[in-house]
């Protein structure tokens, strides 16, 4: 039940061009741009969550962001960085040719804001951790009770045998 994020990206190469597209929370979008040598590329973006009930984009939420990776024509990584929910990334091409620009959401963070299914997943994890902690303390309490009962039985049996003058 992944809600798509809105991403506004403006790539500025020789002339200004803009891209507007939707990307799901686990999707990865790659673009190939022919960029001349020693050209500064600036990308502006904004991520937003889509509310299916209201059918509107919600304002950016904390923790929601994008990972940007840029490879030059030889396949070398020029830029690989995590960014926030809105901002700008910049890189300079050092070799002319087709550069691959890939964007994907930081879906682990986005999962907290993705709606019903992933909210339930987080709630289930919290309940599981709480239950695990209670089971741990219950087993510790049982162990302590067993040890104390054993000590009491040994003292009681010792006093019993001493009273009967068997020891």
What does this protein look like?
The protein has 167 residues and is an alpha+beta fold. It has a domain at 19-107: Immunoglobulin-like, CATH 2.60.40. The chain is 31% helix and 41% strand. The protein is built from two helices and nine strands. The strands form two sheets. Strands 1, 2, 4, 5 and 8 form a five-stranded antiparallel beta sheet that branches. Strands 3-9-6-7 form a four-stranded antiparallel beta sheet, with no helix packed on it. It is elongated, with a radius of gyration of 30 Å. The model is unreliable at 1-15 and 109-118 (pLDDT under 50). This is Transmembrane emp24 domain-containing protein 4 isoform X3. InterPro entries: Emp24-like, GOLD_dom. Its main location: endoplasmic reticulum.
Oligomeric form? single chain
Radius of gyration: 30 Å
Q: How much of the polypeptide forms β-strand, as a percent range?
A: 35-45%
Number-wise, the strands total 9
What is the CATH architecture descriptor of one domain?
Sandwich
What name does the CATH topology of one domain carry? Answer: Immunoglobulin-like
Protein name: Transmembrane emp24 domain-containing protein 4 isoform X3
Keywords: Endoplasmic reticulum, Membrane, Signal, Transmembrane, Transmembrane helix
Pfam families: EMP24_GP25L
Membrane topology: Single-pass type I membrane protein
């Amino acid at each position: 039940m992944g809600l798509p994020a809105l991403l506004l990206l403006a790539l500025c190469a020789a002339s200004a061009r803009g891209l507007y597209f939707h990307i799901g929370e686990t999707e990865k979008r790659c673009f190939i741009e022919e960029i001349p040598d020693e050209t500064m590329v600036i990308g502006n973006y904004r991520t937003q969550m889509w509310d299916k009930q209201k059918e509107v984009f919600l304002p950016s939420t904390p923790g929601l962001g994008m990972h940007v990776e840029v490879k030059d024509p030889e396949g070398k990584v020029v830029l690989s960085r995590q960014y926030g929910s809105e901002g700008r990334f910049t890189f300079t091409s050092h070799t002319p040719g087709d550069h691959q620009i890939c964007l994907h959401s930081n879906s682990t963070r986005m999962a907290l804001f993705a709606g019903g299914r992933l909210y339930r997943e987080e709630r289930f994890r919290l309940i599981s951790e709480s239950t695990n902690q209670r089971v741990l303390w219950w087993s510790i309490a049982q162990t302590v009770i067993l040890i104390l009962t054993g000590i009491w039985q040994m003292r009681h049996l010792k006093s019993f045998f001493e009273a009967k003058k068997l020891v």
